[in-house]
Protein backbone atom coordinates (compact mmCIF):
# COMPACT_ATOMS: atom_id res chain seq x y z
CA UNK A 1 0.00 0.00 0.00
CA UNK A 2 1.37 3.40 -0.98
CA UNK A 3 1.16 6.03 1.72
CA UNK A 4 -0.39 9.39 1.08
CA UNK A 5 1.59 12.57 1.54
CA UNK A 6 -0.43 13.30 4.70
CA UNK A 7 0.39 9.86 6.15
CA UNK A 8 4.10 10.37 5.44
CA UNK A 9 4.01 13.79 7.12
CA UNK A 10 2.33 12.31 10.20
CA UNK A 11 5.13 9.70 10.44
CA UNK A 12 7.91 12.27 10.00
CA UNK A 13 9.82 13.13 13.18
CA UNK A 14 9.44 16.49 14.86
CA UNK A 15 12.73 18.17 14.00
CA UNK A 16 14.15 21.26 15.74
CA UNK A 17 16.89 23.55 14.44
CA UNK A 18 19.46 25.50 16.43
CA UNK A 19 20.34 29.08 15.70
CA UNK A 20 23.31 29.42 13.36
CA UNK A 21 26.76 30.00 14.83
CA UNK A 22 30.07 30.80 13.15
CA UNK A 23 33.84 30.64 13.17
CA UNK A 24 36.15 32.36 10.68
CA UNK A 25 35.33 29.91 7.84
CA UNK A 26 32.12 28.03 8.57
CA UNK A 27 28.49 28.67 9.40
CA UNK A 28 27.14 25.91 11.68
CA UNK A 29 23.75 24.60 12.69
CA UNK A 30 22.50 21.68 14.75
CA UNK A 31 19.49 19.63 13.74
CA UNK A 32 17.77 17.93 16.66
CA UNK A 33 15.66 14.81 16.08
CA UNK A 34 13.55 13.14 18.77
CA UNK A 35 15.76 11.15 21.18
CA UNK A 36 14.32 7.82 20.03
CA UNK A 37 15.89 8.46 16.59
CA UNK A 38 19.42 8.47 18.04
CA UNK A 39 20.42 4.88 17.27
CA UNK A 40 18.92 4.97 13.77
CA UNK A 41 20.84 8.14 12.93
CA UNK A 42 24.06 6.91 14.51
CA UNK A 43 23.93 3.75 12.35
CA UNK A 44 23.60 5.91 9.19
CA UNK A 45 26.83 7.82 9.85
CA UNK A 46 27.51 10.87 7.69
CA UNK A 47 24.70 11.38 5.21
CA UNK A 48 24.65 13.04 1.80
CA UNK A 49 22.15 15.81 1.10
CA UNK A 50 19.48 13.54 -0.40
CA UNK A 51 19.51 11.22 2.59
CA UNK A 52 19.16 13.77 5.38
CA UNK A 53 16.52 15.64 3.40
CA UNK A 54 14.75 12.28 3.03
CA UNK A 55 14.46 12.14 6.82
CA UNK A 56 12.57 15.44 6.74
CA UNK A 57 15.36 17.96 7.38
CA UNK A 58 14.50 21.23 5.66
CA UNK A 59 17.33 23.71 5.23
CA UNK A 60 18.52 25.97 2.43
CA UNK A 61 21.17 24.73 0.00
CA UNK A 62 24.86 24.34 0.70
CA UNK A 63 24.71 22.55 4.07
CA UNK A 64 26.86 19.45 4.69
CA UNK A 65 26.31 16.89 7.44
CA UNK A 66 29.76 16.68 9.04
CA UNK A 67 29.13 14.89 12.32
CA UNK A 68 26.93 14.16 15.28
CA UNK A 69 27.11 14.99 18.96
CA UNK A 70 28.30 11.68 20.55
CA UNK A 71 26.52 12.06 23.90
CA UNK A 72 23.33 12.86 21.98
CA UNK A 73 23.25 10.83 18.74
CA UNK A 74 19.92 12.40 17.80
CA UNK A 75 21.72 15.74 17.27
CA UNK A 76 23.21 16.10 13.78
CA UNK A 77 25.87 18.73 13.04
CA UNK A 78 25.84 20.70 9.79
CA UNK A 79 28.10 23.34 8.31
CA UNK A 80 28.62 25.35 5.16
CA UNK A 81 31.20 27.95 4.22
CA UNK A 82 30.41 31.51 5.20
CA UNK A 83 29.26 33.32 2.08
CA UNK A 84 27.30 30.40 0.62
CA UNK A 85 24.30 31.50 -1.43
CA UNK A 86 21.36 29.78 0.34
CA UNK A 87 19.26 29.56 -2.83
CA UNK A 88 21.95 27.95 -5.02
CA UNK A 89 24.44 26.45 -2.54
CA UNK A 90 27.27 28.11 -4.46
CA UNK A 91 30.20 29.29 -2.36
CA UNK A 92 31.22 32.93 -2.78
CA UNK A 93 34.71 33.03 -4.31
CA UNK A 94 35.36 36.18 -2.29
CA UNK A 95 36.17 33.87 0.60
CA UNK A 96 39.85 33.71 1.33
CA UNK A 97 41.53 31.28 -1.08
CA UNK A 98 42.76 29.06 1.78
CA UNK A 99 39.27 28.63 3.20
CA UNK A 100 37.81 28.00 -0.25
CA UNK A 101 40.45 25.36 -1.07
CA UNK A 102 39.87 23.64 2.30
CA UNK A 103 36.15 23.53 1.62
CA UNK A 104 36.53 22.25 -1.95
CA UNK A 105 38.99 19.56 -0.86
CA UNK A 106 37.19 18.23 2.21
CA UNK A 107 33.64 18.14 0.83
CA UNK A 108 34.52 15.38 -1.65
CA UNK A 109 36.27 13.03 0.79
CA UNK A 110 34.70 9.69 1.64
CA UNK A 111 33.87 8.87 5.26
CA UNK A 112 36.98 6.63 5.71
CA UNK A 113 39.20 9.36 4.24
CA UNK A 114 37.70 11.95 6.59
CA UNK A 115 38.22 9.70 9.60
CA UNK A 116 41.82 8.93 8.59
CA UNK A 117 42.56 12.64 8.28
CA UNK A 118 40.85 13.55 11.57
CA UNK A 119 38.17 15.58 9.80
CA UNK A 120 34.63 15.42 11.21
UniProtKB/TrEMBL annotation:
Single GO term (MF): kinase activity
Gene3D superfamilies: Cyclin-dependent kinase, regulatory subunit
Top-level taxon of the source organism: Eukaryota
Entry keyword set: Cell cycle, Cell division, Kinase, Transferase
UniProt keyword Thylakoid, yes or no: no
BP term (GO), one: cell division
The keyword Ribonucleoprotein is assigned to this record: no
PROSITE patterns, A to Z: CKS_2
Family according to the record: Belongs to the CKS family.
Function in brief: Binds to the catalytic subunit of the cyclin dependent kinases and is essential for their biological function.
PANTHER family, per the entry: CYCLIN-DEPENDENT KINASES REGULATORY SUBUNIT/60S RIBOSOME SUBUNIT BIOGENESIS PROTEIN NIP7 (PTHR23415)
Protein name as catalogued: Cyclin-dependent kinases regulatory subunit
Classification lineage: Eukaryota, Sar, Alveolata, Ciliophora, Postciliodesmatophora
Primary gene name: Bjcks
Amino acid sequence: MNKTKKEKQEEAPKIEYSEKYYDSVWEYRQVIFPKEWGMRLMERGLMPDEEWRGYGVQMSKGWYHYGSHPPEPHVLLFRRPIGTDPSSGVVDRKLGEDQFREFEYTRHLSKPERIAMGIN
